Amino acid sequence: MITKRIIPCLDVRNGRVVKGMNFEGLKDVSSPVELAKYYSSCGADELVFYDITASAEGRKLFTDVLREVAANVFIPLTVGGGINTLEDFDRVLKCGADKVSVNSGAIKDPDLVYRAAKLYGSQCVILSCDIKRKDGEFRVFAKGGREDTGMEAISWIKKCVSIGAGEIVVNSIDTDGVKHGFDIEMLKAVCDAVSVPIIASGGAGSVDDFISLFSSLPKVDAGLAASVFHYGEILIKDLKNELDRNGIPVRLV
């Protein structure tokens, strides 16, 4: 049986890990290199590194910090932020990334997903989708949740999967940082629409939230969280032991 993955997320701004609520009110947390070392050694299955202001600021992802993070982790590393061209894919992969997450860049140029999948393989191309409820539908947002694209999220995800996206990160802006549980309704809609691996992001506040996620939506492949891991509110080893006790397959530390 395929094990469920637990993935900490490093939201990086100006070389530091930050965290907020509903994509706003960002506060300094720690050094990305120190956190990466910690997660690599304590049982995380993968690590996500997002340069969260690269797209909004119209610049390329900071590669110096990324190189240092990649040099200190021994688990798969997904990197995103300011990915707009095949050259950006190439640059972060050469810095040590295993997979590349694209969001605003795909919105501007959907063909980027197709071309990257052809060149690097679908398993390398991760569509990160920031979604918020608006006017009775799930709406795609760009530039770190700052800009409403007007696109309906489920049809957008289906399109990107059809042209090569190999995995989907579903970021619920409505539940981000609130710690009241994952957005089950939104995630179910995505699970029903596509068959590629799905990573749930936004809302984790307790071990029970992860148990509820995987129990209610068996098609979800991974749970991603930030602050509950960063602040030690949930220890990954304890989380995995509890998931195992509840019959949810995980890679035990």
Structure summarized in a few sentences:
With 253 residues, the protein is α/β, with parallel strands linked by helices.
CA-to-CA gap between the ends? 17 Å
Task: List the uncertain runs.
Answer: none
In what range is the share of β-strand residues? 25-35%
Give the CATH level 1 class: Alpha Beta
CATH topology, anyone?
TIM Barrel
Please count the helical segments.
Answer: 10
Gyration radius (Cα, Å) is: 16 Å
CATH homologous group name: Aldolase class I
**SSE class:** alpha/beta
The succession of helices and strands, N to C, reads EEEHEHEHEHHEEEHEHEHEHH
Describe the structure.
- There is one protein chain.
- β2 and β3 form a beta hairpin.
- It contains ten helices and twelve strands.
- The chain has a single domain, classed as TIM Barrel (Alpha-Beta Barrel), CATH 3.20.20.
- The protein has an eight-stranded parallel barrel, surrounded by six helices.
- α1 packs parallel to α2.
- The longest helix has 10 residues.
- The chain is globular and about 45 Å long.
- By secondary structure, the chain is α/β, with parallel strands linked by helices.
